Amino acid sequence: MPSLQAGYAPNLGIFLKSLKTAPLESSIENLISLLKRRQIRNSRPCAIATAHLLLQVVAKFRWTDIGNLLERIQEVGQRLVEAQPREMVVGNIVRRVLGMIRDEAKEDRTEDASDSTSTSQLGSPRRERSESGSFRTEGGATSSSPLRFVSTDASTLSEASGDDVFGGRSQPTSRPPLLTSHTSYAVLNGVPVQQSMFNLLSATPTPSSTPPHTSSPHGKSTISASSLAQRIVITTRDLKAEVISGIEEIIDELDQVDDQIAAYAQEHIHSNEVILIHSSSLSVQKFLLKAAEKRRFTVIVAESYPNDHEATHAAVTGKVSPDVEGDEMSTETFLKPLSAAGITVILMTDATIFAIMSRVNKVILATHAVIANGGLIAAAGARIIAKAAKVHRTPVIVVSGVYKLSPEYPFEFESLIEYGDPGNIIGYGEGALVDHLEVDNPVYDYVPPDLVDLYITNLGAHAPSYLYRIVADHYKPEDINFHKPELQF
Amino acid sequence: MASPGNIPQNEKSKSFDIVETYHQLLKEDPDLTMPVAAIEALIELLVQSRAVTVYETLDLVKTQSDYLKSRIPNSISLSAGTDLFQRYMISSLKPSSTGNFDTMRQHLLSNGRLFVSRAKAGREKIATYGRHFVRDGSVVLTHGGSRVVGALLGKAAEASKSGGNVRFKVIYVMNDARSSESKAVVSTLRAKGVPVATISEGAVGYAMGKVNLVIVGAEGVVENGGIISRLGTYQIALLAKAAGKPFYVAAESHKFVRLYPLGQYDLGIDQEVIVFKTDKEDLSSEEKKFAERTPEIEEKKEYFAPGMDMPKPNTAVDAVDFTPPALVSALITEEGVLTPSAVSEELISVWW
């Protein structure tokens, strides 16, 4: 299936250009291989690529009910995550899109229910996925079910559709037409559904705790089946536009996130402060530049040799190294270097961090990913800095877009750390040395939550212990493990 | 009709004793947790009662809950159940919600078994979440007879059998006062092929260096995210913190209880743990008052007719202690893995 007609795409810019013309399936394969080969790397490019790809998936996929669409996005998302599990933003963006679709569907459904007397009760989506097999047979057997109309509808449509590469995969399933979120707004037998702690006593069967067949997903519907089917066809079109604009909003957010974070800069950086930063990060750079508009301060830059020192030097001096090219360059090169913005910049090696820490007023760290327990994955060396800051009671601030916040709970922190090219430390030219040594080059560090004092995201400043709340706001619980079906309940 | 403050011992409820029902339920089903047993007892109460109005029913449930709480030496865990039950009734009857009294009552009466099975399924779910914390080659330290922890470790052991390749070991802290329970836990784990080492409570600090993570259960999870658990949990948590080992708590969310203890002696229950004695028995009453027990709270005297026995304070065997949230790395609940600060939010959503 992977056709290379879109051409060899070495970076994000070319990939985004090829998206418009290339067939969907080849774009997916293309992104997978780009992720695998690390030709698209770091959080932001990965997030942008994923969001654009999902936009195409939604646009080109012919679907009649939300269930199909969710399944399709899960399937694509799973492949992307498997291609590069350490780029956690890929999974985050997929979850955001899934959650947004669920919200849109729910909204749509509420409007739908409000203009009719329908009290139809749908199964919860989690249960939906895990038991889709049994549901299919059930739906087929119930002749009075409105779902039959949907299913025939779906199959005729997918036969007719030519532009969808989903082809052989599309199954004429008879799913309930629309899925609601995990807590249904609907009322079953007059007993309202409650919040999570009430799950124990609530009337709606929770996915895990009831035997599979105690309740039918079809419920009772007072509107005639055919009119329902018709309504679904109409609403589908609106929904598609809404979903697409929702993804575009996510893409916009990715564009604006650094500026939004930078808006908080002047609250946190004061005149004549000494700030320690580490490695190169667009977010941190914009943050400091914004503060420099009004204040004069000193920045000590730890260069993070050997993985990121060239980019760090470039951020300080404004000289772009020749190997940075393409799309990433376009924004970064036009940023003022720190030294040009009137900031006193001191460049140091990572080894001097502890010695200098007593002079530092604040540490500002960039991240690769933030995890739900409040810890973060950042460029190697970040933990040393955080630890040194802890010893000196220096506050550690982390700037990060919300899109980097991952709901996955890291069970083994070692598994999150990637090992990079050891050639950065000892060149392959030094054969005699390489023969006798084992050279490791970890690219990332895990910084535990108790070493961080404050997170600044595009939503504002948060304590590390509050991050779980932002996770809950941004991702639906049923999407958290979308790429690991064995963890679904 | 029982009015608040009176002992609910009128002719109607004579045949039904909620305390007895509660004990009976716990005895019949060893897998039942205290909050769920309390909920079951209250459902049983609704079945027996002939209350017809909303107020009458709420009042009856409230008085009987208070009565039940006053008769159990350590009512913290069960109060989570009675509170949840009452909040559920009240919020179902809010004008904003569409429920009405009869359907709600009917729902509660007819689904008693369902709640129990849900509570047990919740345990399974915690085990499924929690088993990922137990990695290959890790050493888990645990103590007490928590069924959730038992299920969790059992699940992890199953994963290793089915090719999941999780070869973990358990260090179990024996409790001399409850040696039969400790032995049962240890033999269950050993039967599943998990290597178990038993240590005494004095050896926890010694063993901590070999431990990768600590998993304990809890009787109650309080508002600030701290836990109330079997005596000895607090010291294990302190030692784990000192050694930099993660300390996880596995507990169902129905154990979240609205209580904000400020310290060990602020739990609202009587515990006879610290007992000062000298050789001569005749301490003056003043001295006795000062020295005899850990600080106590005022008993709910109104529930005790002159002839009735007061509940005995907790002795060291079933005493509990309070582990502050700063020592807890994460709570493994059926709602997911939560930070301690998430508990207050869950509680707020139920109470307001």
From TrEMBL, chain A:
GO terms for cellular component: cytosol; eukaryotic translation initiation factor 2B complex. Signal peptide: none annotated. InterPro entries: eIF2B_beta_subunit, IF-2B-related, IF_2B-like_C, NagB/RpiA_transferase-like. Component of the translation initiation factor 2B (eIF2B) complex which is a heterodecamer of two sets of five different subunits: alpha, beta, gamma, delta and epsilon. Subunits alpha, beta and delta comprise a regulatory subcomplex and subunits epsilon and gamma comprise a catalytic subcomplex. Within the complex, the hexameric regulatory complex resides at the center, with the two heterodimeric catalytic subcomplexes bound on opposite sides. Belongs to the eIF-2B alpha/beta/delta subunits family. Keywords: Cytoplasm, Initiation factor, Membrane, Protein biosynthesis, Transmembrane, Transmembrane helix. Its main location: cytoplasm. PANTHER family: TRANSLATION INITIATION FACTOR EIF-2B SUBUNIT BETA. It comes from Hyaloscypha bicolor E. This is Translation initiation factor eIF2B subunit beta. The chain crosses the membrane at residues 363-386. Residues 105-180, 202-223 are annotated as: Disordered. Residues 141-159 have a biased composition (Polar residues). It is found in: Cytoplasm, Cytosol. One of its GO terms (molecular function) is guanyl-nucleotide exchange factor activity. Residues 204-222 have a biased composition (Low complexity).
UniProtKB/TrEMBL annotation, chain B:
Pfam families: IF-2B (PF01008). It comes from the Eukaryota. It is found in: Cytoplasm, Cytosol. Keywords: Cytoplasm, Initiation factor, Protein biosynthesis. Component of the translation initiation factor 2B (eIF2B) complex which is a heterodecamer of two sets of five different subunits: alpha, beta, gamma, delta and epsilon. Subunits alpha, beta and delta comprise a regulatory subcomplex and subunits epsilon and gamma comprise a catalytic subcomplex. Within the complex, the hexameric regulatory complex resides at the center, with the two heterodimeric catalytic subcomplexes bound on opposite sides. This is Translation initiation factor eIF2B subunit alpha. Its main location: cytoplasm. GO terms for molecular function: guanyl-nucleotide exchange factor activity; translation initiation factor activity. GO terms for cellular component: cytosol; eukaryotic translation initiation factor 2B complex. SUPFAM superfamilies: NagB/RpiA/CoA transferase-like (SSF100950). Belongs to the eIF-2B alpha/beta/delta subunits family.
